[in-house]
Amino acid sequence: MANMKQAVGTQVVKQVVQYLGKDPERNVPRAVDMLMPFAQRGHMQRQLLSVKKIMSEPENNYHGLVLRAFSELAPKVRNQFVANFVYNSAMVGNATALKMKSKYDCNVPWAILMDPTSACNLHCTGCWAAEYSKKDAMDFDTLDSIITQGKALGIYFYIYSGGEPTMRKKDIIELARKHDDCVFLAFTNGTLVDDAFVNDLVDVGNFALAFSIEGFEDATDFRRGNGTYQKVIEAMDRMKKAGAPFGFSACYHSKNIESVGSDAFLDFLVEKGCMFGWYFTYMPLGKDANLDLIARPEQREYMFHWVRRMREEKPIFLLDFWNDGQYVDGCIAGGKSYLHINAAGDVEPCAFIHYSNVNIHDVSLIDALRSPIFQAYRKRQPFNANQLKPCPLLDNPQMLRDIVHEAGAHSTQPVDEEDVDELAAKCDSVSANWTPVADKLWAGEEQKYKEAKAVREKENEADKVVLGVEDAK
Questions:
Q1: I need a surface site. Which of 40, 105, 114, 438 has the fewest CB within 10 A?
Q2: pLDDT value of position 9
Q3: 238 C-beta neighbours (distance < 10 Å), count
Q4: Which uninterrupted H or E stretch holds 280?
């Protein structure tokens, strides 16, 4: 019965995408009505209804984002987003993942971040991959196997990092073409994005890019090298002209807050064609990490307020990897919402946590999720009652010490095997300094968080009944 309902849903999605672009203001709400019967989980029903509401509010900035998507993106890109991201990933996949989480008694993520290669044509200050060997790579068959295994668990969203993933253009395009029911995203420095690659992205339709940029030219070139900024802008122009989907990825640190966290910068990126933006903060990985680049408490607080204000004003979807903990119950790593597989095949809880028990060449994906370090993560999540202190390294360094020691995990950094106690020690004072600021902010957010969490928990219990899911042990 479930397979029959999914088959019917697939046919409905095909009907939806055929007419959706003709009159989005009129047809998006109709599309929501058509998809609603196939949204098995309560939170997805709520999200669909929020889209319908947005389309009735012309002054809403997300109303503007929807219209941007229809005017700026190629038709196949829009269609694949609805079919793969909205239906396969958020609706079908999400329901399957809940069942698998119960069946295997472990976290099952929404997305997998993996590195096709550790090689890169740049050497950026503070890159999470800086301590990996530059010779590691996962071959096509390994990447293909991860995606195939992931889909069986309900995972339809795959993100590439590195290294520079566009050094493997042929393979990652072929994977997107083969798995045309999935959504793909690559974090890229943008310097290798030529016309041929852009045309391939439009042709497959299910593959977006997130360009790494640290503000305007001086700020970007400070971390990424002279001339990098101009190459990124040229790549964005190619993408927009072709109707290819893209956004940006920005690392904020002590030296670039005024650039990356400015209205002018975000307005510029919207004008360039960015549909989304990911904000990260600098992490002190590696024994030679520059601790002076760690964002100060007042800078992180500024980003907390600024990103929230931008969400109310700009037609772009924004995420703040650290300051959004209240919306996702803390840290999303450890397979809770995502995991990381490096180019050597080590399965890590997070792109910033370079410790593991298992390698994907030796174990299945589900066995990796059931490995000691992932179970140690799961047992402790969330890592703090204050969801503005979500990270087990930056905000709760003792948690990472305990996790790695309990799991008996090893360092996955062959260049610089950093002891977890030494790494965590860098963040003890960072955590202590952030705590009073985070506690002050949390005083104004805690009640809203509790109310939203109560809604989610009620939905989750109803979902288990609808899906026939037994409570995990």
A1: 105
A2: 72
A3: 19
A4: strand 276-281
Which residues sit opposite 252 in a β-bridge? 281
CB neighbour burial string for 450-473, b if at least 16 within 10 angstroms, e if fewer = eeeeeeeeebeeebbeeeebeeee
Q: Report how far apart, in Å, the C-alpha atoms of 105 and of each of 113, 467, 472 are.
A: 22, 16, 6
Q: Where does the pLDDT of residue 131 fall: very low under 50, low under 70, confident under 90, or very high at 90 and above?
A: very low
* Closest listed residue to residue 296, CA positions, set 393, 436, 396: 436
Name the residue among 180, 184, 182, 177 with its Cα closest to residue 114. Answer: 184
Residues in CB range of 122: below 8 A, 6 or more apart: 164, 189, 191, 224, 225, 228
Q: Is the peptide bond prior to 277 cis by the omega test (within 30 degrees of 0)?
A: no
The H or E element containing residue 455 is helix 446-467
Helix (H) or strand (E) holding 458: helix 446-467
For residue 185, the model assigns a pLDDT of 98
Per-residue pLDDT reduced to its tens digit, 16-66:
877 777 788 888 998 889 899 988 899 899 999 999 999 999 999 999 999
CA distances from 111 to 154, 299, 401, 428, 462 (A): 10, 29, 25, 30, 24
Kindly report the pTM of this predicted structure. 0.94
